[in-house]
Design goal:
The protein has 9 helices and 2 strands. The protein is mostly helical. It has a domain of about 110 residues. It has a two-stranded antiparallel ribbon with strand order 1-2.
């Protein structure tokens, strides 16, 4: 990936993802989802650690929800944040989004979770011929002004446990679901501007140790790099120790 061999890195990532999916699918291989529905759901509950909630459980869930809301509001607030000023220069002639590109984007939307704006992917896909032109103008105006609409910044946060038995609020990883349109604009900007910067970085920037927010970059790639460095360090250490023993033996 660092050498610019993005296709090979993506192929390895797909193979790793396939192995993980195959390993996880073994949980339900021995259960018939039609004949043994109860046993299947008990196995699903065992995997996901799901439990039935009574009235007391619901009250605890509500308290945990409020505590998580306060926790995420605290860690997501920057007291020194200063809103960016709108650009005062004349708009450029470059169109970041065209009507055709927006139609192509919306027409190929896959089923995905919708944000707080309540606009599902299937609705945008059906309305693509009608809303492509006004959305293209909105996207271009947002990029030229350097301001994102407020609705695109609001997100639904789903807490995902980081440990088998979470106790504190920090044991949950926040999964933010923003608007579908916001995600599409971000994906377009990343593919058009950020990914090329990683492939051919400027001279004053170094992305040698960058794994997040880059193509084919993931926690798996970081672990592989750390594992490789450990083996190199171990081999060098063994070589130094062997040279020291040989030199000590010759001196004796």
């Amino acid at each position: 990936m660092h050498a610019g061999r993005v296709e090979e890195a993506a192929s390895i990532a797909r193979r790793v993802r396939g192995i993980i999916t195959k390993h996880n699918s073994l949980w339900l291989n021995n259960y018939d989802t039609r004949q043994n529905v109860r046993e299947t759901w008990s196995k699903v509950s065992e995997v996901t650690r799901g439990r039935r909630r009574d009235g007391r459980g619901r009250r605890r869930a509500y308290r945990r929800r409020d505590a998580l809301n306060r926790h995420y509001a605290t860690i997501s607030t920057d007291p020194a944040y200063v809103p960016a000023k709108r650009k005062q220069t004349a708009a450029g002639s470059d169109d970041y989004f065209t009507e055709y590109s927006v139609f192509h984007m919306l027409d190929r939307l896959k089923p995905t979770a919708m944000g707080l704006d309540g606009m599902p992917a299937w609705f945008l896909r059906l309305m693509a011929p009608i809303v492509a032109a006004p959305l293209a103008a909105l996207f271009n105006q947002s990029i030229l002004a350097g301001v994102a609409p407020r609705q695109w910044k609001d997100a639904v946060i789903i807490p995902v446990p980081k440990v088998p038995r979470p106790v504190e609020e920090s044991d949950y990883r926040p999964l933010s679901i923003t608007s579908v349109l916001s995600r599409q604009v971000e994906r377009h900007i990343v593919r058009r501007y950020i990914y090329p910067a990683f492939v051919t970085p400027p001279p004053d920037l170094c992305f040698a140790d960058q794994y997040a927010f880059r193509q084919s970059g993931s926690a798996t790639a970081a672990l592989v790099a750390i594992h490789s460095l450990y083996h190199i360090y171990y081999a060098v250490q063994q070589s130094v120790c062997a040279s020291f023993r040989i030199g000590l033996f010759q001196s004796i």
